[in-house]
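Exercise 7b. Backbone tokens:
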């Protein structure tokens, strides 16, 4: 099977995530009271910036394209988790907010500058994403008495699928050789990325 062009996938992702950002922004502007939608807008903005930085890899310094880009995506998801907690009337997950980004950042720095390994970085980001998506799903499904619970199930399904796709991506990355390169990712890995775009 022929490998898919990763740049095309990044462009598609940026367009779709930007569209989601515009939709969330318009939703936030219609709110008459504080319900967490502002966090979702900020989170999606961070994700858009992260994907833009990843797309510019090779044209800008690796620190910005690899480290800052991936951390912007992770921070965006954590901010979306905060908005979901506000929406659901729950306390935010302090351990995730306080420790996940610094730990991920340290591991990314190590596996970029000390022991350069793109495959390990993908596994680290996938695991971090799984932690956040599980927290979002639990937050949305915890209280069946909420009037929005059935709609929350739909959103939880989307985040659950995001977590599952990250879980599938881990063994695909492990099956690759030690010189894994995202720019030359195999079709199976690119297919998982396409699934992420669809989600």
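Sequence design result:
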């Amino acid at each position: 099977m022929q490998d898919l062009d990763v740049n095309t996938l990044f462009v598609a992702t940026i367009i779709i995530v930007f569209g989601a950002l515009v939709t969330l922004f318009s939703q936030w502007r219609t709110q008459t009271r504080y319900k967490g939608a502002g966090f979702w807008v900020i989170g999606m903005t961070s994700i858009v910036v992260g994907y833009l930085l990843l797309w510019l890899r090779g044209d800008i310094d690796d620190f910005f394209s690899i480290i800052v880009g991936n951390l912007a995506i992770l921070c965006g998801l954590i901010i979306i988790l905060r908005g979901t907690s506000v929406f659901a009337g729950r306390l935010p997950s302090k351990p995730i907010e306080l420790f996940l980004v610094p730990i991920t950042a340290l591991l990314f720095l190590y596996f970029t500058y000390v022991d350069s390994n793109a495959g390990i970085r993908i596994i680290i980001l996938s695991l971090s994403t799984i932690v956040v998506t599980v927290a979002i799903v639990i937050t949305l499904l915890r209280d069946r008495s909420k009037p929005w619970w059935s709609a929350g199930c739909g959103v939880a399904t989307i985040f659950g699928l995001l977590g599952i796709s990250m879980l599938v991506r881990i063994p695909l990355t492990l099956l690759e050789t030690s010189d894994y390169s995202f720019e030359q990712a195999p079709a199976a890995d690119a297919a998982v990325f396409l699934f992420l775009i669809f989600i």
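Instructor comment: The mean pLDDT is 83. The CA atoms of residues 172 and 179 lie 14 Å apart.
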